[in-house]
Design goal:
The chain is α/β, with parallel strands linked by helices. It contains eleven helices and 16 strands. Helices cover 39% and strands 19% of the residues.
């Protein structure tokens, strides 16, 4: 499968706010339909957050997660669903992790370290907001830390193992790879591991080719070639440039409205499926093909359905 690459689509996330785009999916039906559209366009994995359907605020409500999952599974039983344990601003670690024992997902995100979460800069671009919570959350984040301590990781990983969930390790900077190397050495996780390189978030590493190479060479040095499978994405305008570079470096890719709301510099994307379609078009121009769900399970070492 040397020319096969996994396409993950991150459907809604917890960073982008409804004020930024009228197309941001916020209800369970919208999130589920966007996931199905992404799958139809070539995504083998969808990364799911939940939102309050009344105002789009990120939510840990397990009933909302259940509705999203049920709506997806009604029409697509094979799609790989990766649930968030990153959650959203103000959520406790217990709230963030609660999706794992409840739903036992094949994949769940697992953030490798704490960072200054610099998304407050979004608020500087708007004078008016659709909902009051948006400006309040963005102001709060300027003085907040996105907590992912060693204690948090040591609590999360055994629960993931008990429930048959493979961690998708999110690395926002090279130091997070040192954290992962420690966790492997201490026996909390066994390789091969699955890494997602997160670039372009203020507080983490940038989205230049040098940054991506830095993450990759650090992973080779600390984790070892053959001991990990990796994917990458860039926030905002860096989404497609970083993904294209990842393809050429034998990596997998992630797109989606969690990370980027624009189809190009002048046009908002109306649906996650459009972002996947563009990514698959770029892949095929370079003689790559999107992995099917079955192929993605083989690449990631997941159990076959």
């Amino acid at each position: 499968m040397s020319n096969k690459r996994i396409v993950t689509c991150a459907i809604t996330g917890s960073i982008n706010i409804p004020t930024m785009s009228e197309y941001l999916p916020i209800t369970p039906l919208q999130i589920a339909q966007n996931a199905l559209d992404a799958a139809a366009a070539g995504a083998a994995v969808v990364h799911i957050h939940a939102r309050n359907p009344e105002n789009g605020m990120p939510s840990p409500d397990l009933n909302i997660f259940q509705e999203i999952i049920d709506l997806i599974r009604e029409k697509n039983k094979e799609l790989i669903i990766c649930l968030t344990t990153g959650g959203g601003a103000g959520m406790t670690v217990e709230q963030r992790l609660s999706v794992v024992p409840r739903f036992k997902p094949e994949l769940a995100s697992c953030n490798l370290g704490s960072i200054n979460w610099g998304v407050f800069v979004i608020g500087e671009k708007y004078k008016e907001f659709k909902y009051p919570w948006e400006s309040a959350m963005l102001k709060m984040l300027e003085g907040a830390i996105f907590q992912n301590s060693f204690a948090d990781l040591k609590a999360m990983l055994p629960i993931m193992a008990e429930n048959g969930t493979k961690p998708e390790f999110e690395a926002y900077d090279t130091g997070h790879l040192s954290n992962l190397a420690y966790l492997i050495q201490a026996g909390f996780i066994k390789p091969p591991v699955y890494l997602q390189f997160v670039t372009g978030i203020l507080g983490g590493i940038g989205s230049t080719p040098y940054d991506l190479i830095n993450l990759l060479t650090t992973a080779d040095r600390l984790i070892g070639p053959g001991n990990y499978v990796w994917s990458a994405f860039g926030a905002g305008r860096a989404e497609f440039p970083i993904c294209t570079q990842a393809l050429l470096l034998r990596g997998n890719v992630r797109v989606g409205m969690e990370d980027n709301l624009m189809l190009n510099r002048k046009q908002k994307t109306k649906n996650n499926g459009e972002l996947v379609e563009k990514m698959v078009r770029i892949m095929r121009e370079l003689d790559f093909e999107p992995a099917t769900t079955e192929e993605a399970r083989e690449i990631l070492g997941l159990k076959k359905l």
